[in-house]
Amino acid sequence: MLYNRKAWKHVFKLDPAKSLTSDQIREVCQSGTDAIVVGGTDNVTLEGVINLLSQIRMYSIPCVLEVSTVDAITPGFDFYDIPIVLNSQEKKWVLDAQHQAIKQFGPMIDWSELTTEGYVILNPEAKAYQLTNCYLPDREDVIAYAQMAEQMFNLPILYLEYSGTYGDPELVRQVKQHLNKTQLVYGGGITTLEQAKEMAQYADTIVVGNSLYDNFAESIETVHVKK
Ligand code: 1GP
């Protein structure tokens, strides 16, 4: 199926290691959000991913697997997003993990389903920040990553990741000024519609994750950012 991902304003990210009831998953899928991303850092298993995919597939909504481990990849998603952690201090998370995965699975990959995301992880408390041994970039660093993503690497997505904490809208605004083709995705700490609106002024797409598990009703309201 063809989807215009650039038009996605709001997406929910579901963690295969956490649980929602089937009624809640129905509500998420029918909320009016543009897509569901399945992704997480800890305890992502093939069983968890398949279980979530089968529930999401009951509804007509685009579904993306954000790949964090090759052990939990399964067919059936519309897209497979491959993070490249630009501010990791280890080449493993920029190039080597992806290289190994392609070496192993290359012949099976439908390249039209694959999307590369340049990640800049900005919350030192985030699991992904620690796992990938990031450093905390300053404003100029982040802007330079945005320019590299668009001008050097032609990455379709730049993802400002504050997972677990609400980020700096002024930085998001400044980064957006340096991007024309590359889609700016913001994720992290959005718990209210007001926060969703603030970040959506600048980011092309906002991602809402954790708050679904903490305050479901308020989290669902964030979808009204699309109006
Ligand atoms: C996580 O960017 C997403 O990868 C969303 O962040 O879970 O903090 O909403 P939260």
Automatic annotation (TrEMBL):
It is an enzyme of class 2 (transferase). The keyword Lipid biosynthesis applies. Keywords: Lipid biosynthesis, Lipid metabolism, Magnesium, Metal-binding, Phospholipid biosynthesis, Phospholipid metabolism, Transferase. GO terms for biological process: glycerophospholipid biosynthetic process. It comes from the Bacteria. Pathway: Membrane lipid metabolism; glycerophospholipid metabolism. Its cofactor is Mg(2+). Its EC number is 2.5.1.n9. Mg(2+) binds at D15, T41. GO terms for molecular function: heptaprenylglyceryl phosphate synthase activity; magnesium ion binding. Pfam families: PcrB. InterPro entries: GGGP/HepGP_synthase_I (IPR039074), GGGP/HepGP_synthase_sf (IPR038597), GGGP_HepGP_synthase (IPR008205). Sn-glycerol 1-phosphate binds at K13, Y159, L160, E161, Y162, S163, G164, G189, G209, N210. The keyword Lipid biosynthesis applies. It catalyses: sn-glycerol 1-phosphate + all-trans-heptaprenyl diphosphate = 3-heptaprenyl-sn-glycero-1-phosphate + diphosphate. PANTHER family: HEPTAPRENYLGLYCERYL PHOSPHATE SYNTHASE, PTHR40029. Belongs to the GGGP/HepGP synthase family. Group I subfamily. Prenyltransferase that catalyzes in vivo the transfer of the heptaprenyl moiety of heptaprenyl pyrophosphate (HepPP; 35 carbon atoms) to the C3 hydroxyl of sn-glycerol-1-phosphate (G1P), producing heptaprenylglyceryl phosphate (HepGP). This reaction is an ether-bond-formation step in the biosynthesis of archaea-type G1P-based membrane lipids found in Bacillales. Homodimer. This is Heptaprenylglyceryl phosphate synthase. It comes from Amphibacillus xylanus (strain ATCC 51415 / DSM 6626 / JCM 7361 / LMG 17667 / NBRC 15112 / Ep01).
